[in-house]
Design a protein that fits this description.
The chain is an all-alpha fold and 153 residues long. It has helices spanning 8-12, 19-26, 31-43, 48-68, 77-89, 97-112, 132-136; strands at residues 121-122, 147-148. It is built from 7 helices and 2 strands, in the order H-H-H-H-H-H-E-H-E. The chain is globular and about 35 Å long.
């Protein structure tokens, strides 16, 4: 078959996937890790429908993390709990969501992401982080003008 490169996402999604779904999976703080997650689901023999659901929900988590200003190395159990509360409030929390999120968190903690920046990013209103490019290690596509909640002593 010419033209289509095989990726872990191709196992769960076909060419008719809504472009926004693929965008949520391939951009943002968890992009590289979602690919690994999809490969693990495939390797463990998960059904296509189950994989699609988990990946779509994690794509929403990825988008939420990006909108809240989180990087992958800042995700912890409290971050996951905030997202679960958000899903509950919007009526979108479903059975299996917390298990998939816990699996992703375990994967992140297993050494695939090393924490780098001690600063918590918050919505604009605080001081610009002068160590942005060196300490924080943000990717190039991350908004350059994000503000840092680091307190000056």
């Amino acid at each position: 078959m010419l033209g289509r490169m095989e990726s872990p996402f191709n196992h769960f999604f076909n060419d008719r996937i809504y472009p926004g779904t693929l965008d949520e999976l391939t951009r943002g703080p968890l992009a590289a890790h979602l690919k690994t997650y999809a490969q693990q689901l495939r390797d463990e023999g998960y059904a296509v429908q189950t994989g699609q659901y988990q990946l779509r929900m994690l794509g929403h988590f990825n988008r939420w993390l990006q909108s809240e200003g989180f990087a992958a190395n800042e995700i912890d159990s409290s971050t996951v709990k905030r997202f679960v509360r958000f899903r509950e409030k919007t009526g979108k929390l479903r059975k299996g969501d917390t298990a998939a999120l816990a699996r992703m968190l375990r994967m992140l903690r297993a050494g695939q992401i090393k924490p780098r920046c001690p600063h918590r990013l918050r919505p604009p209103a605080r001081l610009f982080c002068s160590s942005f490019s060196t300490t924080c290690g943000r990717s190039e596509d991350y908004p350059r003008r994000r503000l840092c909640a680091r307190r000056l002593s």
